Amino acid sequence: MSALSAAFFHDEAAAFAKLESLIWPEGPVCPHCGGMGRITNVKGGRMGLRRCGDCKKQFTVTVGTVFESSHVKLHLWLQAAHLLASSKKGFSAHQLHRTLGVTYKTAWFMFHRLREAMRDGALAPMGGLDGPAGGAGIVEADETFIGREPGKPKKRAYHHKMKVLSLVDRDTKQVRSVVVDDLKPDTVKPILAANIAKEASLFTDEAGHYVKLGKDFIEHQITSHGKGEYVRGIVHTNTVEGYFSVFKRGMKGVYQHCGKQHLHRYLAEFDFRYNNRAKLGVGDVARTERALYGIIGRRLTYRSANRPQAING
Question: pTM of the entire structure?
Answer without folding.
Answer: 0.91
